[in-house]
Design brief:
7% helix; mainly beta; 52% strand; single chain; disordered C terminus; 12-stranded antiparallel beta barrel; 12 strands; 3 helices; Porin
Length: 305
């Protein structure tokens, strides 16, 4: 009888298969540059992004501070992309705040954790896909009590895809929709404190991630799933996933607004340990303060006859 494959192999395959048939991630609290859009301006200055606010409808275990204390209740977040040379040179910025539902009275709405993120990205169209490369800085800290914080700098490459780009007939079949998303490979380049499992053990080394969204009805209704995995640099098998964060969600869109109903489950995959999960409702407002302008061609001084 053949020996069963290791558990981590099954988890990797499951994550990939789930993406075959989009702003909180595991929380990969950094929004994807430009919302993961395949199209975009390749030159010019622009500022765009999104503001979001959410509430945990059900939360038995998902913590509200980096040290795993409290229970997340409210979430406030802001994401911005500052394009200097269009998408070819962008600076993504993110702020994320949690509150603690275990606090008394109005304290439930007071911040318990603050996450700050910034970086640089460059996105290039490659045939029917696009490639985003860049580096991000992330710092998570408590703001009401405790001192434990997590900080890292990572380098990542992300492949953005749209099935409708390869098969235009899919758009009609889905009523103006698409199957789109991205695949990510990241390396925690500088990391002394960002941990590799939900129980705050290990030290994150690599990030494997996949996202897929099936949209219908002119992209007004979508079903999405996001899978993110970390590996542990302190483990002998540092390429093997130590944590899997899985987030399926339903998205209703009426531009420039979105409403997400999502379930997130963060779990260890190489050993038993703490599992954090919750159900949340998130409202998102997208904005564009400055949009890149088309370059103005220089007028010739020669007067045509």
């Amino acid at each position: 009888m053949k020996k069963a494959p290791p558990r981590w192999v099954a988890c990797v395959l499951a994550a990939i298969l789930c993406t075959a048939p989009r702003v909180a991630h595991a929380l990969d609290k950094q929004g994807s540059a430009h919302g993961g859009a395949l199209e975009g301006d390749d030159e010019g200055f622009g500022v765009s992004g999104a503001l979001s606010s959410g509430v945990a409808l059900y939360n038995p275990t998902f913590a509200s501070r980096p040290d795993n204390s409290g229970r997340a209740f409210l979430r406030y977040a802001a994401h911005a992309d500052v394009d200097v040379i269009g998408r070819r040179l962008s600076f993504p910025l993110d702020v994320n705040v949690f509150t603690d539902r275990t606090r008394e009275g109005a304290g439930k709405a007071a911040p318990s954790e603050l996450d700050l993120m910034g970086g640089v990205t460059s996105t290039w169209r490659v045939g029917a896909t696009a490639v985003e490369i860049g580096s991000r800085f992330q710092h998570e800290r408590p703001v009401d009590r405790g001192t434990f914080s997590q900080t890292f700098v990572d380098t990542r490459a992300r492949l953005l895809y749209s099935v409708a780009e390869l098969a235009p007939s899919l758009t009609d079949a889905l009523g103006g929709g698409d199957i789109s998303g991205w695949l990510t490979l990241g390396w925690f380049t500088i990391n002394r404190t960002f941990l590799a499992r939900p129980d705050n053990t290990g030290l994150a080394f690599l990030r494997y991630a996949a996202n897929a969204r099936v949209s219908f009805w002119q992209k007004r209704l979508s079903f999405a799933i996001d899978a993110s995995m970390f590996t542990d640099r302190r483990s002998n098998a540092w390429l093997r996933p130590s944590e899997l964060d899985l987030t399926p969600e339903i998205v209703v869109r009426a531009e420039p607004f979105e409403v997400h109903l999502a379930y997130e489950r963060d779990m260890p995959v190489d050993r038993r340990g703490l599992v954090q999960h919750f159900v949340y409702l998130l409202a998102v407002w997208e904005f564009a303060l400055f949009e890149p302008r088309e370059p103005v061609e220089e007028r010739s001084n020669i007067v045509s006859p």
